[in-house]
Amino acid sequence: MSEIHIDHVSRHFDDNIALADVSLTIKEGEFFSLLGPSGCGKSTLLNIIAGFLEPTDGVVHISGKDVTNLPPYRRNLGMVFQNYALFPHLTVFENIAYGLKIKKMSRQEIKERVEESLALVQLEQFAGRRPHQLSGGQQQRVAIARALAVRPSVLLLDEPLSNLDAKLRKEMQFELRNIQQRVGITTILVTHDQEEALSLSDRVGILGKGRLQQVGTPLEVYRAPANQFVAEFIGQVNLFEVALSQTNQPSPAGEISYEAISHMDGNIQPLALAATQKPEFKNGQALFMLRPERIQLAFVPLDLTANYAETRLLEMSYVGNALRLKVALAKGELVIHTPDPMFAELPKPGDVLYVYWNPEDLYALEAGE
Amino acid sequence: MYTGTRKIYTLWKRASRMKKTSTKKKNQLFHWLFLLPTLLFFGVFLVLPFALLIKLSFQDVDAMLITLNTYSLSQYIEVFSSPVYLGTIWSTIWVAALTTVFCLLLAYPAAYLLVRAPSRKMRALFYILLVSPLLTSVVIRTFAWIVLLAQNGLINDSLLKLNVIQEPLSMLWNMKAVIIAYVQVMLPFAVLPIATSLSETHVNLRNASMILGANRIQTFLKVTLPLTIPGAITGAIIVFSLAAGSYITPLLVGGRMQPLLPLSIYQQVMQVFNLPLAAAMSISLLVLVFIIVGLLGYILKRWEAKMNG
Amino acid sequence: MGKKRFSLLDFIVWTSGILVYLFMILPVFVIAISAFSPSEYPEFPPKAVSLKWFTAIFTNPQWMDSLWISILLLFIVTPITVVMGTMASYALARLEFKGKGLIQAFVLSPLMIPQIVLGIALLYLFTTMGIIGTITGLVIGHMLISFPYVVRTVSVSVSNLDPRLELASMNLGATPMQTFFKVTLPLIKPGIIAGAVFAAVTSFGEISISLFVSSPSTITVPVRTFGYIEQTFDPSINAISVIFIVFSVVALLIIEKTVGLSKVM
Question: Are B27 and C94 in contact (CB < 8 Å)?
């Protein structure tokens, strides 16, 4: 059982709280990503799991064993580092054999294991090379082979793809997922790249300001973010603040109308919202989120009373398969993503656009944190 | 902000448009003019004296040790056929090598503290402790050892007072004293390059080793030590050449009679006045140091090529 | 701070490291402190405190002569070496030619040449030239020894300098000379200051060459100290040591304040 239990773990650096009371369980065979902006505590948490840092408080269990006070070399983990950390004075073969030699395996066994690991990452012919003779992608694969050669219970990946260029990164993501599934090893990936995290992982843990903000599948964290932080961190988002003072009565269709404040600049904007969800009011305030791709465009005025606005185009970028727009409301702004529209001509800044969306696309968020 | 960027951009444009060849030539001439005084100075005061010294080393002397205008290999033959001088050469190498080894051994923990001390202030303190003796004259640093090790010196004094010993130990005027003083005088030259190497080894390399199952001692031996070899060799080169060529320290704590080549040379110049023999010994010492330094330099190059291509 | 486990290994490493630092610093520390002892032999710790031996030094005309020679030398050697060394390091950084590596090794070589050999070579040359025992001879010897320090510190500064800045300056119409003084020099100033401090300290403490090329009228402080130690030892040498130590600490402070120690070493 290579489960990982993280139980009320905190880490302070002098007066700085890098990690505050994080509890988390990572399941056997799962590909789990720790996602967050830099300084959110994700590396601190990974270093605590690896044993490079001791938690100020809390307990870490790996495979049912309390490892909180075990040094890294007694934890039987595999790790791939951001700069790969291949030993420059050793060949590829010696790098992969490093952990096996420490375990005092026989020469024959080591040879078999190294060859098997090299085959896994398709680098059989590079055994005699030194790290500096390899490309970034090849170094990356040696690092993976080296980590897996010791048959670790858990594989830790610390921003392993951030040094690669965009195209290679895509290839390596695919390969990483492939290898992980073939080996079936519990894997924790630390990254600040949300696309990487969402596309690779079974589940994602989002860290912000030293706290675990949400744990869920990629679908859950995108569609149902737990709070404003997660909503804003994963993808782009339009936020509407609504006040409690209204008498909100459900319509026959089950929709409730609100008077909203567009969140972009905080100005009051007489925008009528109709939502199917009922938000929880905190201090008389509640938040609705609207993803940019849920907004529809029209070039003629529509006869709608809610979830509709007349806007002026501010900025636009056309990226081939999609169009990204920023439009001005009477007060405030909206971000809109639409698939490559079949316009004969692209709209120009200053053009009037009419936007609308469905009541079910408004998702109620916890206000504040 | 914008105007600044704009200005730099304009400069760039102009820089790339300029006529390269003529400016380049003008610059080159300018740079050569800058180098000229140094070349002249070193030509006259480093190349010339060594040329003269080499010439002198081949000159003969008469019975009164007057330098003659005849040339032969006789001085070198005397150096390399006399068992006394051969023994001296051997012990010079041996003492310099021992000094180097001790310096390297002591340098590692010192460099470790210098690089890994938890606070900036602490690192600065170690830095000052390391560099301030380096900036104090070698006479003074050697003198300290006389004060400590002499018959009526501080160590004997304290041991006598504490009744640890009844008779003062004779710690001065032997090769041990020379090596102790050498190690103390030259240690900073070994610590600094090792500390530089150590600070350049990425923490992730040690972490990678430990996560692969190596404990801290294994990690040091298999990762940190090999990666700091360039620093250690650089330190060894400096310490060895200093230890093989110094005469002040051995003269003061070892005495004139220690079998060390620099001391023999000193004696030939200051007491025997056999200049050609002193010259031959000097050139031999110089070549010896160059061979060993060259060898270490070669190992260093090979090692670095292996690691970095 | 996290819970820190006691580690025997850490303890051993730190203890041995601290012992090494003590080994490096204690001898000098001990003689400096015992300079304040009034007794005829260096004592540690001194039983009483007196400035007797400092007075002895500062009222002794021979020591004062030597101090004067040493300071005079320092003030001649430092500026010449710094100007020449700066020009050379700058030129070597900008020029590309075959044998450049050789020239670089050559100007750094006085550090590696056995000091006794350098001393004798200069003794012989100066005797031939008739400048043995003169201040000129001492200046030349000290310049040779200080030169590598200046080249090393200035070269580091020059290599950190973006050559495109100079290109930009010349494109605005500045001559190479104007560019050097208005752009390059201000930017490599830290390296030059550090080089100057090292040159001064090296000259002030130099003995191996001075011993061969000085005469009774040009005895520097280290040479006089050497002669004195050979004959006797009383705490007046300790008092001299304090002068040297103060000098080196001042040098360190200047470097720390202007450049930062860790940057130049």
Answer: yes
